[in-house]
Write a structure and sequence with these properties.
The chain is mostly beta strands. It has one helix at about 5-30; strands at about 45-50, 65-70, 75-80, 85, 95, 110-115, 120-125, 130-135, 140-145, 155-160, 165-170, 175-180, 185-190, 205-210, 215-220, 225-230, 235-240, 250-255, 260-265, 270-275, 280-285, 300-305, 310-315, 320-325. It is built from one helix and 24 strands. A hairpin with a 4-residue loop joins β23 and β24 (about 320-325). The strands form six sheets. A four-stranded antiparallel sheet has the order 1-24-23-22, with no helix packed on it.
Length: about 325
């Protein structure tokens, strides 16, 4: 056989064997196909639009702390304006409710909100030391809570989270615990204490519930996320202080998408990080600044589970920013 013929056969053999080797390596050894020139399939998020500025007018904010999406509308807890504002998905003002005060439907710092499966809205009325429940058009339904350290009492109630079974989980930043209620305010149980150990908390901010009923807590002071069963048993945790992927400097807001991926506002790193439900890092977006897609001290985050759109309460810039998912 001629040298030229041997070279051609060797080339053809290589073209067959190399792809097989790549596939086997990927399956058995876990090599990412991207190292062989394939496109990285990690999702990215691109800036779409923004709205808001500092002030008291419609569509303006003063320390907006939280944002959520439900039934085609964006709900924003407008903290120091003592109200909730409602927008369409691209920021057109629709309505508002609430004002400063202690009466039903009034707020003393509306710090956070969530929706249940029936569309009812729960507001953490921070310095009235209570939770208030409304229809999603702002009609008052009920309230519960008072100042104190007992069951059903609060010192600094933060983001409530709902599960599919009619329970509400409320983090208390100063009590370093999670209290569990029925959706009408009946106390069920609580867990957590101040500390750095497994299941302990330091300045907990948000909580969120996945499709299996597991509860995630943004353990702000410990720079980590903790995952619990809905009766408070620790499942896993992830994160420590830093700027690398999977590290935090003040994890604050939480949200969840249709695949149970967890979105975290990494407040003092001025970014959003995204994880699987067991804490594996997926991606991140945002950087410090006031330009499009940049963030200053982001507090809250909300995800449209149908479209994957992500709404960020860009607190330091007094605005809401909308990002779209791309893969």
């Amino acid at each position: 056989m001629s040298t030229a013929m041997k070279s051609k056969l060797h080339f053809r053999y290589s073209m067959v064997i190399l792809p097989i080797f790549v596939i086997i390596s990927h399956i058995i050894l876990g090599f990412p196909l991207g190292i062989f020139g394939q496109t990285n399939t990690d999702p990215t998020y691109s800036y779409v639009t923004k709205w808001g500025s500092f002030g008291e007018g419609d569509g303006q904010f003063d320390g907006q702390n939280d944002v959520d999406f439900y039934d085609g509308k964006v709900f924003v807890a407008d903290y120091a304006n003592h109200r909730v504002q409602i927008f369409d998905p691209h920021g057109k003002f629709i309505a508002k409710f609430g004002e400063g005060g202690e009466s039903d439907g009034q707020f003393h710092k509306a710090s956070a909100l969530s929706m249940d499966s029936e569309g009812n809205l729960y507001i953490a009325d921070q310095f009235n030391f209570r939770i208030q429940k409304f229809t999603n058009d702002g009609t008052f339904i009920t309230k519960w809570g008072s100042e104190g350290v007992g069951d059903g009492q609060f010192l600094h109630p933060h983001v409530p989270a709902n599960d599919a079974e009619g329970k509400l989980f409320v983090t208390d930043r100063d009590l370093a615990n999670v209290q569990v209620f029925t959706n009408d305010g009946e106390f069920i149980m609580k867990w957590g204490s101040e500390g750095e150990g497994d299941g302990q908390l330091s300045k907990p901010e948000s909580s969120i519930v996945d499709s299996q009923g597991n509860v995630y807590v943004a353990d702000y002071g410990n720079n980590r996320i903790q995952k619990f069963t809905n009766d408070g048993k620790l499942i896993t945790k992830w994160g420590d202080k830093g700027t690398a992927d999977g590290q935090f400097q003040g994890p604050s807001g939480l949200s969840i998408d249709a695949n149970d991926n967890i979105y975290v506002t990494d407040k003092n790193n001025n970014r959003i990080q995204v994880f699987t439900s067991d804490g594996q890092f997926i991606t991140k977006f945002g950087e410090p600044g006031s330009g499009n897609g940049q963030l200053i001290d982001p507090e809250g985050v909300g995800v449209d589970k149908e479209s994957g759109a992500v709404y960020v309460a860009d607190t330091g810039n007094n605005r809401i920013q909308l990002f779209e998912h791309q893969s």
